[in-house]
Amino acid sequence: MEAPQYVAARVQRALAEDDRTSELGIRVDVRGDQLFLRGHVTGEEHRRLMERVAQEAAPELHVHNELQVVQVREPGEDEHLD
Amino acid sequence: MTELRIAAVGDVHLGEDVRGQYRARLTGLEGRADVLLLAGDLTRHGTLAEGRLVAEEFRDLPIPVVAVLGNHDYHSDLQYEIMSEMRDHGIIVLDDDAVVITCRGARLGVVGGKGFGGGFAGKCASEFGEREIKGFVSHTRSIADSWQRALKELDTDYKIVLSHYSPVKETLEGEPLEIYPFLGSYLLAEAVDTVGADLIFHGHAHKGSEKGMTPGGIRVRNVALPVLGRAYGLYCLSEHDSC
């Protein structure tokens, strides 16, 4: 059986290198037959693609997509730098 | 001296599915800032289609837009085509060089480029050993040297450095320590500290924190969109509290 660390690394590599995602810095955790994706992406479609690419890279695991879409709120107060 | 209001953001990672959404957040920008700075990773995969989308999203704004590219924008080896597309749409793109802009009577010099990695003093790679390691570190060193030269040549009221990679580790807090060498290099800070600047902006570290400073006391702001959580950060530079 492949060690969970190698599965997680394989998924992380797929998310970075797959042309559909090219996403770095996403946390991938494997626990038993469960795989968790955590972090931020910039759009809903991208969020779904991340799940698809992860699932393809680890078809034997149940993927939990806990990625959040970055909220672009209104700018707040100026910071004064004197 | 006239105060200067700066809007800055990085890592907007625009793709077709979010076309127009970011631009909608730029309404009223001219009332809040004199210049908009973009700290790289404007695209997701660095394709020309995404480069065009970035150009369209930031074109014809009522204030000058100054940008640098990030590692994502280099991913398809089309960085120069993307820069050209953006410049054709009136966006100033820095590539280890400088621009001088006059804002409400104040002269602002911006020096910048992508930057690169290597790590931070005491825990960094050196130009030693294999060709690949030497190439990695010498790339950063050559960038830092270009910034230092460009800063020296500036004679402006304010000097700002715009980077994608971080010059300090303070603004990386929240990122795993193991990847710090891929997030920035102290060589960038050292170059800026040698000449002096008012402020340094960078992006790249999505899980980092907003505020830090160089060993020489220059303030550093990580303006990566996931760190800010708002369309852009607003920073006011002045000698007196007059903004």
UniProtKB/TrEMBL annotation, chain A:
<protein>
    <submittedName>
        <fullName>Osmotically-inducible protein OsmY</fullName>
    </submittedName>
</protein>
<dbReference type="InterPro" id="IPR007055">
    <property type="entry name" value="BON_dom"/>
</dbReference>
<feature type="domain" description="BON">
    <location>
        <begin position="3"/>
        <end position="71"/>
    </location>
</feature>
<dbReference type="Pfam" id="PF04972">
    <property type="entry name" value="BON"/>
</dbReference>
UniProtKB/TrEMBL annotation, chain B:
<dbReference type="Pfam" id="PF00149">
    <property type="entry name" value="Metallophos"/>
</dbReference>
<dbReference type="InterPro" id="IPR029052">
    <property type="entry name" value="Metallo-depent_PP-like"/>
</dbReference>
<protein>
    <submittedName>
        <fullName>Icc-related predicted phosphoesterase</fullName>
    </submittedName>
</protein>
<dbReference type="InterPro" id="IPR051158">
    <property type="entry name" value="Metallophosphoesterase_sf"/>
</dbReference>
<dbReference type="InterPro" id="IPR004843">
    <property type="entry name" value="Calcineurin-like_PHP"/>
</dbReference>
<feature type="domain" description="Calcineurin-like phosphoesterase">
    <location>
        <begin position="4"/>
        <end position="207"/>
    </location>
</feature>
<dbReference type="InterPro" id="IPR016538">
    <property type="entry name" value="UCP008292"/>
</dbReference>
<keyword id="KW-0378">Hydrolase</keyword>
<keyword id="KW-0479">Metal-binding</keyword>
